[in-house]
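To the wet lab folks,

You asked to see what we're planning to order before we commit. Fair enough. Below is the target structure as tokens, and below that is the sequence we designed to fit it. If anything looks off to you, flag it before the synthesis order goes out.
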């Protein structure tokens, strides 16, 4: 196991600052900065980089949250992941989405769109805590989703994902989680907690530059939904390669 001093050497910022909490974007550790520089230099000099691979860290992120690689998609940021989740769900008349009054706007805004037709209900915090009984009172059989941050940005309160998933699933609703404040800092186990969707960017505790993130979708749900965005990478490579565009 690396000593604390060896770990500190990987973070040049500590030579100039007392680094307690990045709160927004993490300072880059040296291995990440070196990889970014190598990627750019490779493209400048060779037009490709040996750092490129099809996995793009999905297997590592899957292991981090207790998922399978096949359950992980690449996204640009948490907001995109949450918007994908919001737009694959179905909203019958009278549908409801339950969230909390501590949430970052990105957690709430996707469900406020009029085209979804869902009513957003805010479980009120009590002294900075989201009480399970308040969520239980809010969730009913018309609830499509319970949407929360794993760790609330405003005060660091950690929601009980397992308890929230039980409440949601008892009413046929999905649990959708913003994990940007927790992924890389505290243990996440999406199987133990029975999470349906989880989204995060990597620029906080996962120590990446902006523009990289992951979306987890529970395996048994993947075939139930139609992706809102599709492109050439949406199909298996062998299918793409057999298309004869001159016959289209």
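Sequence we intend to order:
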């Amino acid at each position: 196991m690396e000593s604390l001093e060896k770990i500190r050497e990987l973070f040049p910022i500590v030579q100039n600052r007392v680094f307690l909490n990045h709160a927004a974007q993490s300072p880059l550790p040296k291995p990440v900065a070196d990889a970014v520089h190598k990627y750019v230099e490779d493209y400048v000099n060779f037009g490709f980089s040996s750092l490129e691979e099809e996995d793009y860290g999905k297997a590592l992120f899957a292991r981090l949250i207790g998922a399978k690689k096949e359950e992980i998609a690449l996204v640009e940021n948490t907001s995109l992941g949450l918007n994908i989740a919001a737009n694959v769900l179905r909203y019958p008349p009278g549908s409801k989405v339950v969230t909390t009054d501590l949430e970052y706007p990105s957690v709430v805004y996707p469900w406020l769109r009029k085209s979804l037709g869902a009513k957003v209900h805010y479980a009120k915090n009590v002294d900075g805590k989201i009480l399970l009984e308040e969520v239980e009172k809010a969730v009913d059989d018309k609830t499509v989703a319970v949407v929360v941050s794993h760790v609330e940005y405003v005060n660091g309160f950690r929601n009980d994902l397992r308890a929230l998933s039980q409440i949601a699933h008892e009413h046929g609703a999905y649990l959708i989680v913003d994990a940007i404040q927790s992924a890389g800092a505290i243990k996440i186990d999406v199987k133990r907690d029975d999470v349906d969707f989880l989204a995060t960017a990597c620029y906080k505790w996962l120590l990446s530059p902006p523009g990289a993130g992951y979306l987890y979708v529970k395996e048994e749900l993947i075939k139930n939904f139609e992706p809102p965005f599709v492109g050439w990478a949406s199909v298996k490579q062998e299918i793409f390669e057999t298309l004869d565009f001159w016959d289209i």
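Structural context that might help your review: DSSP finds nine helices and seven strands in the chain. The two ends are 58 Å apart (CA to CA).

Thanks,
Computational group
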